[in-house]
Amino acid sequence: MPQIITQRQHLIFDADDTLWENNIYFEQAFDEFCNYLNHSSLTPQEIRDILDEIEIANAKIHGYGAVNFGRNLSQCYLRLAERAVEDHDLERVKAFALQILAQEIELMPGVAETLPFLAERHELTMCTKGNTEEQNRKIDNSGLRPLFAHCAVVKEKNRQTYLDLADVRGFDLAHTWMIGNSPKSDINPALEAGMRAVFVPHQRTWSLEREEIRDPGNRLLVVERFSDLARVFGTEPL
């Protein structure tokens, strides 16, 4: 069992699906898309597989976020529709994604109570990937920005992203932790950069963010819920 951490640390937090709900709204949009497509033979999972291919290709060009998700759904509809595609069809499909922007921020359980506790003891940074305007809007609407010394919105989260962030912020990697729900974007690249990490699982993590966690240096902690971070980085015994 890991010892309690009392020395001041640099804590980097993922945002979507770590601090607040996000992917569930994309899943809802996808369900509406499938119903509208009403394909005669493809299952939702088969449609999802095709959409994943489109999203992987487009993310390299356009990035992430609701607006880009609308573009991806439109391309998927054009590929799979079994009837003539009208302009209103594509507008309807995009609307499924754009309604994500109207969702109110729903903080994950324990975030509102735990983050202020951690902010009193450690330096907090937020690092989230996606569309700059969309992500900053969510950060502001969450009410959490004042708790963070720095908020970074990046196009992609990989080893170099974390090394650059540590360099700009002057972080000592031995006392820097990446905290998030995504093995692909949060945990593995941070560990590869020489940081430590805390994995906070989310049952609805986006399928493209899932992969096997690689911890070559025994620098990973896994917690069941966000509020457990108060015990890891606080003063109470584990």
Write structural notes for this entry.
With 238 residues, this protein is α/β, with parallel strands linked by helices. The chain has two domains: 10-20 and 106-232, Rossmann fold, CATH 3.40.50.1000; 24-102. It is built from nine helices and six strands. A six-stranded parallel beta sheet has the order 3-2-1-4-5-6, sandwiched between helices. The chain is elongated, with a radius of gyration of 19 Å. The model has no long low-confidence stretch (mean pLDDT 93).
The neighbouring-strand order within the major sheet is 3-2-1-4-5-6
Give the amount of beta strand, in percent: 5-15%
Helix content: 40-55%
CATH architecture of the largest domain: 3-Layer(aba) Sandwich
What is the general shape? elongated
Question: Would you spell out the secondary-structure blueprint of this structure?
Answer:
Layout: E1 10-13, H1 23-37, H2 44-62, H3 66-80, H4 87-98, H5 111-119, E2 123-129, H6 132-142, E3 150-154, H7 159-169, E4 176-180, H8 183-192, E5 196-199, E6 220-222, H9 229-232
Parallel strand pairs: 1-2, 1-4, 2-3, 4-5, 5-6
